[in-house]
Amino acid sequence: MGVFDIFTKEKEVEERGSQPMSMGAVSLTSYYGDGKLASEEEAMKIPAVAAAIELISSSIAQLPVYLYKVDENNEIERVTDDKRTFLLNDEPNELMNGHNLKKSMIRDYLFHGAAYTKTEKFRNNFLALYRIPIKNASVTKYRQNGYKETAVINLQHDTGGEMHEFEPEELIRVLRNSGDGVTGEGILNTNSDIIKLAIDEMNYTKGILKNGALPLGILNVQSKLTGKAVDKLRDSFQNIYGGAGNSGKTIVLEDGVEYQSVSLNPNDLELTSSKKNTMSEICRIFNIPESMLNSDANKYASNEQNNIYFLQHCLSPIITSIEAAYNKSMLLESEKRQGYYFRFDVSEMLRTTEKEKVASVVAAVNGGLYSINEGRRVLDRPNIRDDYFMWNLGKVYY
């Protein structure tokens, strides 16, 4: 060590101790204990989950996203001639449209906690957006000095099992419950118990219907049987009395054979009540008003109140996460300093009927917030020749 070495800054060493995290390997194990993993597709077989995913993804996918700018006078101006909003709303690439891209992104976000979109650029100009299938993606993280993390996102090809690496800045990353800015937690991780319970209830109900409501039981035989005789007796009993087509048949047993039921029936289990409770829990997972999935559980007096709750507690956190990802990955640093930002237009969600829509526009026009033509544009009506504001004398004199 030299005399002046004490003034030399220690070189940062990147610890290449990688932590591979597969985003597509998130899975559930059924309570039946057969070791089979429940995938995203199996979770989608739960009607309440499928309805919730469809409702949330379709609601956000239909909302347009616009680019705005705040000038030095704090006035907000919508930017209309930007390629990025065309890619987000209309045609992100050669095959997909904007609706499908946003819908698939939200599905990945809800199930797996992360949605990745590859940006294709030439210099600073965006050319296309491509969805990265989350099931085929994995993340390898590296740590510097014990606290600074970098990551590589890997995508497995369909052929040959080859991997393609992406740097984080190449992707638009929409994350749920993320602690590192690269990975997140979806409902398959955070709410596995209730999803497994719903799968178990479905499988149990299916088994009851398949067996024609014949409960699990034991055949007691007084004489000793060989292995072949046991199998033959079991198969014969199942063929005659098992299945929905044999429901209601009278059981006739030979002398020396006794049937004993060893399982609970659906009434004893209160299966219908349990399924209702499970649906309520699934609605809580997604922060959806239960009346949107179950008409018997109407809590609010109007559709508008339902939509307000749905927007504030369910959609708004997801929309904010998407907007933050767009602002981080699709804006230049100079644009961020100049006040550019992306924002979804959620105004249409709060107007559920034509009457409510017209009433809100009339109130805005009478209050002087909209001019006549601005109000007509909201209602998709053509402009009139002479536009004016509905101001009273007090406002004019002031």
TrEMBL record:
UniProt xrefs under Pfam families: Phage_portal (PF04860)
Record-linked Gene3D superfamilies: 1.20.1270.210, 3.30.1120.70, 3.40.140.120
Domain of life: Bacteria
NCBIfam families attached to this UniProt entry: portal_HK97
Name recorded for this polypeptide: HK97 family phage portal protein
